[in-house]
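Researcher: Next entry in the queue.
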Amino acid sequence: MRGQCLLGSRDAGVQRNGCGMNGAVEKSSSAREELLDCIEKEHQAERNLCDMLERIADNLLGPFDTELARTSIVTMRRCLKRHVELEEKYLYPVLTKRLCPGDLAENMLEHIRCEHSSDESLGHDTAEQLEQALMSGRVANPEMLGYMLRGFFECRRRHIAWEDAIVLPLARYRLSAKDFRAFSVEKFENSIA
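Model: Structure for this entry, 193 residues:
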């Protein structure tokens, strides 16, 4: 285990091995914080989306709330795209550069990428089912849609909580302003518009 970087480890031996754990020395950096703040805002938007989807799921046997469904569809597509883009295009590449060979965080990042892919697929399918309900004015199969909605929002809540507890603190610890020279919120907003 000697010389291997562990998630968030502040062991002096780990710092001496040159694995890029400069976050412990550098307290703040505006470029880094700008990206991480942007991710935290996206996480809050997704938590709000999950709350909307849960309200839909809880009321599928009553009148279908078309306005909430319409808002949820737009928000779901926007949030997922932004979430994946922010993390996979901007955060993970720089975080990956700071990892040591055999770093446990490599597996974590790969797992998160897989979750992004499966959540995007589930989000797409769920949005399509909501759209069909909007077009027909009713939910054809409330049990199936409820299952899909709950599967999606429960996965997203777990995913976001895990990133908030592990990934963002790790990024704050290991990364510096130099790692984010290419990032700006304005540039990001223009790239996904």
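Model: Helices lie at 12-16, 30-58, 66-97, 104-136, 142-174, 185-192.
Researcher: Noted, moving on.
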